[in-house]
Amino acid sequence: KREKELEGNQIITASNHPILLSELRAADLKKSWIWEGYICKGFITLLTAPPKAGKSEFMRGFLKAIEEEIEFIGQPTTKVNILVISEESELDWVEKRDEFEITKNLKVWIWPKPFLTKIKLKMWEDFFQEVLEFCEENEIEFIIMDTISKYWPVDNENDATQMTDALRPTYLWAK
Questions:
Q1: Could you count the other beta carbons within 10 Å of the beta carbon of residue 49?
Q2: 0.85 exceeded by the pTM?
């Protein structure tokens, strides 16, 4: 293991090390699907669509499928603990929970409106660490951020450096 001390005394431990290609075995690296073929534990999936296209409604239907461990758009789902970081209010979530009949059988934590304004990169990185700690404490295996562009510290999505810096903390969650 290697440890690297970051700004603000934040420590991130990485267990990455070189491995001989010939020693990798598929059986040791099996994917664990939340939604077969689309969303896998330990990976980052980006679902995109124009504003008001129905991403949030899609997500709530997906949550219901996970709760019941039924197929969603033709593919099986697996029940997991979930954290939703949302731009929608608590009231919106109460209404949609009741409309979609999402019950206590599914552990879904809602973090509504974590920031009231755009934030700087350091606060963004700190937030990701805080989310990671919350997920470890509550055995959360699936994080949904709806909508990432409302919060991230990116002014220009065509700037590769800004995009890389903003997406780098997501790798913490994948680990």
A1: 9
A2: no
